[in-house]
Amino acid sequence: MSISNSQIDRGKIGKTPALSTRSDEAFTDFMSDARNFLLHAQWKNMSERGNKILADKGVVPQHTVEGVAKARGAIADDTYVNTFLRVKRSAQEMYKNRIVDSYLTREAEYLRRMDDAEKRGPGTLTYDKDFIYPDYAKVEIHLQPQGYVGHPLAGMFYDYGTSIFYGGANAEDVFHAKIAKDTPVPTDGKVTRILEIGCGIGQLACELKRLHPNAEVHATDISAPMIRYGHLRATEQKSDVHFAQMPCEDLDFPDKSFDLVVSHILFHEIPLEVIDRTLAEVKRVLRPGGTYVMWDFASTAPGQAPDRGLTGLMDTADNCEPYASTFVSCDVESRLEKLGFHLRSRVPAGVSMGSRVCDKPAT
Ligand SMILES: C[S@@+](CC[C@H](N)C(=O)[O-])C[C@H]1O[C@@H](n2cnc3c(N)ncnc32)[C@H](O)[C@@H]1O
After folding, report:
1. Closest residue to atom 19 of ligand 1, CA basis
2. Measured distance CA(72)–CA(95) in Å, rounded
3. Which atom of ligand 1 lies closest to the CA of 179?
């Protein structure tokens, strides 16, 4: 074996540990570019082609089990669309498995690094070794082997996996930095305490801290492996973020304790009952006049085709997103308004993902 394929510490790529061998890196680089070429570049064509087939056959892409089955039936004879969907699914399985196998060869070293970081600041880390996860949180979401909660290296799998998923476009967390910049603050301008729920590995929380250096930033997630790695990643950036394991539907913070609450791509990954409990918790922990910003998929009214059309529908169906359909069709805007939020802005028409800016009335 050449030195380039030895199990050596190969350093980091940006903020993410490199894979264990050169050939693992070459494989995932290839998959990343192949996805850009075969999937991202074809997305518009394939969406238009698929949507036209559905329209010609009178099939409305509904985000239900029956809706997915109907859409699959309608496109069954189209080689192009089916090849596109097959490549998408297989590519995802191939790169995720390779990442897992690669990092596992150095598992003990990575666990040691996370343990060591627990003794370091500037931020803090709180989690419960005996935490019992609800079943809904144990699914292999996005086809990540053992999901977000089942493996101690889940945070690392997520970090490297999403860097391939984004086709290299999120190097150095530039994507999360832009979201942080595009996250509005309360109308009175006061931002002393910020909370991100469902923070994953803390990419957005660290960027929010960079943008609001005087604010106290808290980042919570149900998964201990995600925040353990997130805390290590934050300490390496010297970012003063406080990580805590906490279900978003049961926030362990006092009433009215945050100026700004943010979530990014959390809500389409939780069941409806958890969505409702979480929205109520967000309202509770926000101070009067505080703001909640929800970054997630656009909503569709029941029975209406979402802007994401066939490719969006099949993405949720083929990407192990068991709760996404319910989220996009649950009319989350009405739920927010029923709770008393004033919606300053909604996800703009024609985009599949965006922000809902929700103000809690000052009185
Ligand atoms: C798609 S990831 C998004 C992570 C991060 N916000 C980002 O921008 O990359 C969804 C996260 O939500 C977390 N999650 C799922 N259910 C949760 C719950 N009930 N409470 C808190 N976090 C949850 C998962 O563990 C995962 O880290």
Report:
1. 247
2. 25
3. 8
Q: How do residues 200-255 score in pLDDT, each as one tens digit? A: 999 999 999 999 999 999 999 999 999 999 999 999 999 999 999 999 999 999 99
User: Is the CB–ligand 1 distance for residue 183 below 6 Å?
Assistant: no
Atom of ligand 1 nearest to the CA of 199: 6
- Locate the domains of the chain by residue range: 1-363
Bond prior to 122 in cis (omega within 30° of 0): yes
pTM flag (> 0.90): yes
φ and ψ of 70, to 5 deg: -65, -45
Query: Which of 259, 288, 262 shows the shortest CA–CA distance to 191?
Result: 259
Residue of minimum CA distance from atom 25 in ligand 1: 223
What CATH number has the domain spanning 1-363?
3.40.50.150
Residue 295 CA to ligand 1 center (angstroms) comes to 12
Atom of ligand 1 minimally distant from the CA of 204: 8
Ligand 1 pocket test: pick from 136, 153, 233, 269 the residue with the most ligand atoms within 8 Å of its Cβ.
269
Q: How far apart are CA 232 and CA 174, in angstroms?
A: 19
Nearest to 332 by CA among 305, 362, 354, 363: 354
CB distance 225 to ligand 1 below 6 Å: no
| Closest among 239, 205, 209, 237 to 221, alpha carbons compared | 205
Token couple for 93:
């399985």
Please list, in sequence order, all residues whose beta carbon lies within 8 angstroms of the beta carbon of residue 243, skipping any fewer than 6 positions away. Answer: 123, 124, 125, 126, 127, 199, 202, 205, 218, 219, 220, 221, 227, 230, 231, 234
Number of Cα atoms under 13 Å in the Cβ half of residue 175 = 15
Q: Is 140 helix (H, G, I), strand (E, B) or coil?
A: coil
